Predict the structure.
Amino acid sequence: MKKIPQRTCIGCNQIFPQNDLLRFVVHDKQILLSADHQGRGVYLCRKLECYQKAQKRKAFQYRLKQSIDQSSLDKLLSLFN
């Protein structure tokens, strides 16, 4: 039986199978939705509440260990509507 990777949502801090979450990476201070970019990434549930919690706590900047343009974070909102 193949082991399924588990990842933690930065919004609700719950553990889910990796395939159930969205992966984000930073490139040139812009945050991108990407499963295939290399580098430090964060995972987030597909729920609007988790996105709002992560943004309120500045979890993207903290977990990615770099500053991110606010306009880039605002563009992510369209993924959750």
